[in-house]
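[User]
If only I could read backbone structure tokens as easily as an amino acid sequence. I have put the entry right below:
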Amino acid sequence: MNSDSIYLDEDLDAIRRQTQEFIAREIVPHADQWEVDGRVPREVIRQMGELGFLGLRHPETYGGLAKGALYSAVFAEALGGSTYGGFEVTILVHTDMASPHLIHSGNSEQLDRYMGKIVSGEILTAIAVSEPAAGSDVAGMRSSARRDGPSDSDDWLINGSKIFITNGVTADLLIVAARTEPGNPRGISMFLVEKDAPGLVISRKLEKTGWLSSDTAELSFQDCRVPARNLLGTENRGFYEIMKNFQNERLVLSGMSIGASQKALDLTYDWTQNRTAFGGVLFDKQVIRQRLAMQQAKVDAGRQLLYHSAWLMEQGIDATREVSELKAFAGELVNQVTYDCVQFHGGAGYMRETAVERMSRDARVMSIGGGATEVMLEEVAKRSKV
């Protein structure tokens, strides 16, 4: 793949290259076992912290690089080429979906308490918003939090349940959303909940079709006691913080999809150019090379939309439409690409020993998680001229 782009510079290319080198050296040789274990080892996360991968967007005060959205996009795209979606999402939930809430809304005491260890990988984070009856519909949230007394200095008690929580089993720090203003659909607040908080229960570790090296949990909060100082941001303003970070979440998930699509194509180019059938190599079959070429064109187009969306975000321009288009396009694309790649691998593509088989399973959730395709298209439609 030619990474030349008007949006990239030498530093961004270096991040891509360093990420790819780390993946080849430290991830690919070991990640099959992580798929069996259902988790990414903490020492790998700490190693990524030591190398600076976990703080690309985080303040320099806490060891980060304080870079912009293009760094998240390039990093996510490079991670997407690992062929292990569970590893990729474990990292991106930590760097771009959970911890940004602390950066955006945390006070100086909260930042000092947690951020340095988040950047170093000593603390792993998760975001707990989705519920059994409220996924993309954040306003339908039923989990609640109330003061354990009349004073602002009293603890909070959280009750309810959360589901599909990536890193939910192993996270040290959860960013938890709960309703604090009954009767107001948007009356939601955010809380910093540590893993040993009284009343926090890991109900079960969920079994998934893909992302096998990522732990996913259902959580229960039973009068879960949270200190008053762990209210994150302004009371009853959490809904808006969730909406604000959705754009970043959707950006990196799209980056994952673009990176995975390109990797699947690369693997299939190699396979079809070396696999003989019916008196010649598969790539010489017109239908195969043309379908691969069309998928490559779509991946190239998606990559440019990824970079453009990130660039808009860096300029402070509202990119809701572009990011929604990107998420819908990339989530569908990675499913189309991996389907074709499995097809062109033939029987080998259906075997667990083949990377494209795993990638096809991991791809399925990309049109669901972080905003289903249909939800994204509604966001685009609302912002389109008619």
Summary: Residues 238-274 form the longest helix (37 residues). The chain has a mean pLDDT of 95. The domain at 126-235 is CATH 2.40.110.10 (Butyryl-CoA Dehydrogenase, subunit A; domain 2). The chain has three domains: 10-124, 126-235, 240-382.
